[in-house]
């Protein structure tokens, strides 16, 4: 909003309020005065008529004619004639009602409806001598009245309401016109005043716009007045002079900034091949924060090619590098497409994590889906390998979820953005356990717990209609640890036989940990009947039979201690 409009909107309401209050006070004073005069005139007539009526009756009484009907009638006619002589307008009427509400006398023809007569009589009976309003003959009227005891009349002096208040209405119209003209004149004068007042500011703004549009810093604003606007012009001219001096420096700095930005973009493109994009963005946003470690919960994945030494012996160095590059390309794309970070390559192994530097609510789920996608990618990779007559790759994947330390770790000359801690070590051990448990993918109990927390909305967002099926394989204490950890395998979907077998297997595990080895053996046998040759069901069945014959000691918790990595 322009300053002219602001000044106008501030001052005009003040003027309007003052004019409205002044005109309103004048209006009410005038209307009250006119109404008071008209009411006094009506009241004076009522008093004169009342005196005349009483005098007529006193004459009858003094001459003992008050019992003669013809004389009473003559007196009433005299009253009617006197009333007729008091009229000053064609619309004024003086009438009388008897005690039954019937019209007894009227100076002008008037027809009272039954409802009007009753209403008028009711008002007259309650009348306190003041000014009243009622419908008389279908016309709104103002009246004063009094009761003549000798004649038993309610005498009413009435005038049409529009005539009675005609002067007041004229005053109302004149007040509205006067107020409207005053407001219009005030608004016009105020507009001219504001325009004149802000004209120097308009010139300053015009000069500014000209400088901005043309980019000519040699233009100056004329100083017209020795007031605030003149001071503004002087200040603006001084500012433009300083800007003109600094313009050369600004152009040089802008050129250097462009070069720096292009250099930064080149660095980004180069390092994105080695460092995750999220990490690069975080580094440029806050370089200092990247030097500080951070403890947080995230998912860690290790994958490894089985029997890689044997595979490498059967391939030439060139063929091995080509196969590895093609394998890594597919695996890394999957990890990054699932919001994961490829931490490092450890020979033929891949280490990745989810949850840093940017954390997502579905990181545990994305890590597992990435693992399943990696297994699918290996199957497609092996199809190509087979077509090329090359050795197929088989991998094992271990995924754990828990607290780690994440940050830049290393020396001033070489640093890695990586994660460390027991969670990382356990993920690596679980990848090794895939060989012992003949499973391509193993996840820890902490990760399984995170998957079980997922809402239908989160599953739907990942394109899943139902939770991923989990199969508990064992509770193990990896090498170097005494505490056992439950390990699970999982799939995207199961066929009907696998669904029944996995359900029987999980039921068997529940009985196994309750030391119900006979009941557990029966469930594992059921799983084997559905999945003949299943390694884990057979392994646990053998354990149950051994424990049934030779029960474990008291305090047994079902933990299998691993002697190797």
Report what the structure shows.
The protein is built from 16 helices and 14 strands. With 565 residues, it is α+β, with helices and mostly antiparallel strands. The protein folds into four domains: 3-168, PAS domain (Beta-Lactamase), CATH 3.30.450.20; 217-271; 293-491, Alpha-Beta Plaits; 494-565, Serine Threonine Protein Phosphatase 5, Tetratricopeptide repeat. A hairpin with a 7-residue loop joins β12 and β13. The longest helix is centred in the first third of the chain and has 60 residues, at 3-62.
CATH architecture descriptor text of the largest domain: 2-Layer Sandwich
CATH level-four homologous superfamily name of the largest domain: Nucleotide cyclase, GGDEF domain
The tally of helices reads 16
Biggest pleated-sheet summary? 9 strands, mixed
CATH fold descriptor of the largest domain: Alpha-Beta Plaits
Number of domains: 4
What is the count of β-strands?
14
